[in-house]
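Extended Data, record tRNA1(Val) (adenine(37)-N6)-methyltransferase
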Amino acid sequence: MKRQGFQFKQFFVEHKDCAMKVGTDSIMLGSWVTCPTCNNDNTPQQFLDIGTGSGLLAIMLAQKSPARTCITGIDIDSDAIAQAKRNMADSPWSEKLDAQQTSLQSFQKREVEQKFPLIISNPPYFNSPISSEEKHTQKRVQARQTSELTHQSLLNNVAQLLADNGMFYCVLPSDVCEAFIEYANTIGLQLIKQLTVFSKPNTPALRELLAFGFEARALCTDSLTIYTENHQYSADYKALCKDYYLNF
């Protein structure tokens, strides 16, 4: 039976058991992230993927990170974690990857002494009541809405888990990112990089890729358009994702 998922250059991500499927948001985010170099003390680096789903972002980090790196993906969905574990085990970097079923709040309380130099998340982004009792619809809405993990709760926990010189990367719809950035600033997380994404030329901004840290730096901003007017992938989008997309 054909597996349901997405073939990348160096790995395959199956997503049939995940509420949120492999999508452009995560592919862009994982491609955009810059991994820190190895520690001078030769201890393994610890990265964290919040809301790992199929494990895609964690696996993308595994591909681009130094050898002595351990990446933990967490999610509250048992089916997603089971899927992530299989995808991680089948990837070329299985020794670097781990998936745990837990909420971010519980994880932070348990790992109170752990500090991560890199945290990544494709977080929930809208408030919406569940309108269907069908299981898959419920799980998809739960994965996307902020009732289980508000943006303030996400940022508060990230601030506790992020290393002093660490970076937190996320992707959000453009129309909700201003409040997110403002709240992050109130708890000491400074916006360091921002990539504004447009679907096509002459259309409203669609997504914002954001990078935060505790250390104040000059803000670096840029923009990206995914498609040309002829609905072909743009040269900039291909350049961003070329290490992952099979046909780029």
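Summary. Strands lie at 5-7, 12-14, 45-50, 69-75, 97-101, 116-121, 162-173, 190-198, 205-213, 220-225.
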